[in-house]
Each structure stands twice: as structure tokens, then as C-alpha cells.
Design brief:
This protein is mainly α. The protein has helices at residues 4-20, 25-38, 44-54, 62-69, 73-80, 88-97, 100-107, 114-123, 126-134, 142-152, 156-164, 170-190, 196-216, 220-232, 238-246, 250-261, 265-274, 277-287, 294-312, 318-332, 339-373, 383-387, 393-404, 411-421, 431-442, 460-463, 471-477. The longest helix is centred in the C-terminal third of the chain and has 35 residues, at 339-373. The chain starts with a helix and ends in a 5-residue tail after the last helix.
């Protein structure tokens, strides 16, 4: 009796002979009947050998291929992922009933039709969805992309694949930000790191920041779509629009005001570029922006106009620009702000802090590049030392004196950092030391409040509760453990 190993070894040559076409009709009929019988062979090696030969063959017997597609997952995946014999309707049915391995194989076909993509979007496991999104020959309808985000947007791999795929609509990308924020909130709450109110505030600001970055990279025709999407989801807030203005994204602000006021976008854009304060206030009022926010928005528009040439010429980086705009806007904010507007003031102060930290990091990076250009040797043949080289004391000493004199940088911060790292001249400068200096510069230490409990204390840092200060500032200053 022929054993399973011999049957498996003979299957490949036999099927290849049938595919070669050098047989008479009787021989072909005999081999085709044998292939059908092999579908029921108890040894998986035989059926696998049959699938491997037939998987790419357009002339393979349909009944045999369909039988293999319903075999165990490892064998079925071979033909489901490659066979041109299977039609879309069959693939859709197979995907609906198959396990993860076969779904991944179906998602990796070249190409994937819209019908199969839609079916996988409805029933596919997360790995199959990732394979589908990463397949550049998969024609995925927009409604199926929406469905994938709805079903599996909480999966990190799905989000990453979706954001990396070209042509994903901007509204879907923004929804992914919501999914990411929800995942982060769940993680923090499960670990009991902070209150739900606190994490809600932090994730809201993080989403606003990411949304503005998304808008900055969008095509002009996508901004209106994003604005409509945000409004439909209740996320087109005053805080988001003010942050956008302070970051220089006047296009997003203009599209939002046009949408809210029901006015043509071109007319609003012209007003934003050249109009006066009176017409702008009328527009903001019609759009429903809070009256007390109007001076802040107008200040942001004015500074954007003033600095437009410097930004276009590359004379002002993003962090410095945001800091200048935010400081001007804060100067226009009323000192007796009510609770609603006070939240905007806190947000603006955080934005100013972010800009200061970004500017500081950019300055440190430029300083270390200067050290490298001046010939400070990177340690050789020592991976660990090479990794930490940028923070070594000798490199810092090389750049310290000339770098701190950079007229474009805040000398007060420079002194703060120099003081923070001065004790490390003979050894490595730890990044944490610089982070602490950044935090101390942004939120300087204040004296303990004097007098009765609840009495006002001079200085913003001393009057804010822990919940009003960004978490990263607390972590950097060591106020609480990360």
C-alpha cells in the first residue's frame, strides 16, 4: 500500500503534468478524477501538495479549488489568497465563514475587489483588516473604511495601518484620533492613574492638538470636509478654533466660521486676510462664538498677518510663531474672565508652555549639531556610549558659551538650563535634568501662600491647582510620580 508520504510526493508532478497539457483527453479525465478523490485524502500533506500546485493556475478545476478553499485553514489559505478561479461571490461567502488565517489570505489577494473588501470590513478579524488596509491593490470603498474604524479603530495596528494608507479621507483620519483618545482614556482609567474628569480634559486637548496638525497637512479641498465632520460630532469648539488661530492655521478658522455662519468660504477668507475688527466681530457673532472670545481671536488674526512674511521666509519657526501669537492673545484676555472663558485662558497658557518647550528642544538640538560640526568626536565601538553621546558633558561644554548667546533664543531659559546642568560638567548630562529646567522655566517655583487659607497669591503657577497644569510638567518637575 502506498503511504501518505509517497502520495504527497507524487501529487505535485501528477498535477503539473495535467496543467502542462501534454496529455490526451482520457489521461486528463483520469487525473482530474484523481484530484477530486485526493480532496478526501486523510493526510493533510497530500491535500497541501495539491493546493500548492493549483493555487496560481487559472486552468485549475473549479470544483477541486473550491473544495480546497473549504479545507482546514492552512490549506484553504493557499487557494483563497491566490487562486484566480474563485469569483467574488465565492470569496465573500468563504470570508464570512472562515477563520482568521483564511481571512488574512483573502485580504492579501492581488487585487481585492470592492465587494470582497466590504465583506472583510464587516466580518474580518483585526489581522485581516490590517492586511486589507496595507494591500495597495485593495479597492476599499469609503463606507468600508468607516466601518473598519467603527469596528476596530480601538486596535493599535488597525489605526497605524489606516493612517499609513494613502487616500484615506480626512474625516476618517480624524475619527481615528477619537478612537486613539478613547483607548488612552480606557488605559489610564483601568490603571487608576488619574480621575475621569482629569483624563477627559487631557484627551480633549490632545485631540484638539492632533486635529490641528491633521488640518495643517490636509489639502485645501479637505478642510471644509473636516470642519463639517467636526461640527457633526460636536467637536468644533471655541477652544479648538482658538488653538488653530494661535498655531497659524487661519484656513481652518476661516472654514469653520464660514460653516457656522452659513457664509461662502471665499468671502470669509477675504475678510480674514484683509478685513477690519468690526466686520470680524460681526462674523464671529453670526458664527456663534462667545462674545468675550472675540478680542482673543482678533489678536491672533492680527499677529498672523504681521508675521506672515517672516514665516513664509523661514525666519520664524513654528514654536516661536505659536509662542508670539499666544502671548499677544493672552494680553487681550480679560482679567475678570468667567468660568467658561477661564478655561480658554488656561488652555492658552498651556499652549504657550508647549511652544516654549518646543522652542527649547529645537535650540538644544541646534546646539548639539553645532558641537558635532565643531569636531566633538562621537565615541567609537561602544553602542551604549554612542547612544548617550549627545548628552555628554564635553559636548555641552563645547557649545555652551557661544550657543547661549544666540540672539534668537530666550536668554532666561538658557540660564535656567545652564544652571540645571552645571553640576554635570564632568559627566553625562541627563535629559531629565534638561526637562526639569524646561519645567522650571515655564512654571517657576513660587513662595508658599501667606495669610489666610484661600487668600490670593501672586504668580500663575501658585494659583493653579494640579488639574490645571499639564501632566508632563508635573512629571518633569517631580511633583508626582509618572
Amino acid at each position: 500500500m502506498v503511504g501518505p508520504e509517497q502520495r504527497a510526493s507524487a501529487t505535485g508532478p501528477l498535477v503539473r503534468a495535467w496543467l502542462g497539457g501534454d496529455l490526451d483527453d482520457q489521461e486528463r479525465q483520469g487525473i482530474e478524477a484523481l484530484m477530486t478523490i485526493l480532496l478526501d485524502d486523510p493526510d493533510r500533506r497530500v491535500r497541501r501538495a495539491l493546493a500548492e500546485v493549483l493555487a496560481d493556475a487559472p486552468e485549475a478545476p473549479h470544483a477541486v479549488v473550491l473544495g480546497l478553499a473549504q479545507d482546514e485553514e492552512e490549506i484553504a489559505a493557499l487557494v483563497v489568497g491566490r487562486s484566480p478561479v474563485l469569483i467574488d461571490a465565492e470569496l465573500v461567502d468563504i470570508a464570512a465563514l472562515a477563520g482568521e488565517t483564511v481571512q488574512v489570505a483573502a485580504a492579501g489577494r492581488r487585487p481585492v475587489s470592492p465587494a470582497l473588501a466590504a465583506a472583510l470590513a464587516e466580518v474580518g478579524a483585526a489581522p485581516a483588516l490590517v492586511a486589507l488596509i496595507e494591500n495597495r491593490q485593495a479597492a476599499i470603498p469609503h463606507f468600508s473604511l468607516d466601518r473598519i474604524v467603527e469596528r476596530a479603530g480601538h486596535e493599535r495596528e488597525v489605526r497605524q495601518a489606516m493612517l499609513a494608507r494613502a487616500g484615506v479621507p480626512i474625516a476618517i483620519r480624524q475619527t481615528l484620533l477619537d478612537q486613539l483618545a478613547a483607548s488612552l482614556k480606557t488605559m489610564v482609567l483601568e490603571r487608576d492613574w488619574m480621575s475621569e474628569e482629569r483624563i477627559d480634559a487631557l484627551t480633549r486637548e490632545a485631540k484638539d492638538k492632533a486635529t490641528i496638525a491633521l488640518a495643517a497637512s490636509a489639502e485645501p479641498q479637505e478642510i471644509g470636509i473636516l470642519v463639517a465632520h467636526l461640527r457633526a460630532r460636536g467637536q468644533l469648539t471655541t477652544a479648538l478654533l482658538l488653538r488653530a488661530a494661535c498655531n497659524g492655521n487661519i484656513r481652518l478658522l476661516g472654514e469653520a466660521l464660514a460653516n457656522l455662519a452659513g457664509m461662502p468660504a471665499g468671502r470669509v477668507s477675504a475678510l480674514m486676510a484683509e478685513g477690519g475688527e468690526g466686520p470680524f466681530r460681526a462674523l464671529a457673532r453670526k458664527a456663534g462664538l462667545p462674545e468675550r472670545s472675540h478680542p482673543a481671536f482678533w489678536a491672533a488674526i492680527e499677529v498672523n498677518r504681521e508675521l506672515h512674511a517672516d514665516v513664509a521666509a523661514g525666519a520664524l519657526d513654528d514654536a516661536a510663531f505659536t509662542r508670539l501669537v499666544t502671548e499677544r492673545v493672552l494680553a487681550r484676555c480679560p482679567g475678570d474672565a468667567d468660568a467658561e472663558f477661564r478655561d480658554l485662558v488656561v488652555m492658552l497658557r498651556r499652549l504657550a508652555a508647549e511652544a516654549a518647550r518646543d522652542a527649547a528642544r529645537q535650540f538644544i538640538a541646534r546646539s548639539l549639531e553645532t558641537a558635532a560640526d565643531e569636531g566633538v568626536a562621537e565615541p567609537a565601538n561602544d553602542d551604549a556610549a554612542a547612544e548617550d553621546w549627545n548628552w555628554q558633558g564635553n559636548a555641552w561644554e563645547t557649545v555652551a558659551a557661544p550657543a547661549w548667546e544666540d540672539p534668537d533664543f530666550d536668554t532666561a531659559f538658557a540660564e535656567a538650563v545652564r544652571h540645571a546642568v552645571s553640576g554635570h560638567a564632568d559627566g553625562p548630562i541627563e535629559p531629565e535634568a534638561v526637562e526639569r529646567a524646561l519645567a522650571d522655566y515655564v512654571f517657576p517655583e513660587e513662595a508658599e501662600p501667606a495669610g489666610e487659607e484661600g487668600a490670593p497669591v501672586e504668580g500663575w503657577a501658585a494659583t493653579q491647582s494640579e488639574d490645571d497644569v499639564p501632566a508632563e510638567i508635573y512629571y518633569a518637575r517631580g511633583i508626582r510620580a509618572a
